[in-house]
Amino acid sequence: MSIEAIAEPDQAIVRIYENEKAEGEVVDFYRPQREKSGSMPLAQMELVEGENVVLLKLVGKNPQSSGFGLDVTTLTFERVR
Fold first, then answer.
1. How confident is the model over 4-46, as pLDDT tens digits?
2. CA distance linking residue 6 with residue 16, whole number of Å
3. Which of 10, 13, 21, 30 is the most exposed place for a label (fewest CB within 10 A)?
């Protein structure tokens, strides 16, 4: 799974969770100037047939960030064989 978002001075740090379990790395969307982040990998998960609860959680903020925002433009789920 990957994410693209608007990175700017008031954005948060994000992490993905699968069924309440933290996956992958944290991603910091703070930037001093507003810009598109580009596609950033979040995690590789093994989802099973049926219901899978996948959450994006704001887990903190860069000390320089003035807020706790998240402006997602694209979430990409890709099947890996």
1. 999 999 999 999 999 899 999 999 999 999 999 999 999 999 8
2. 17
3. 21
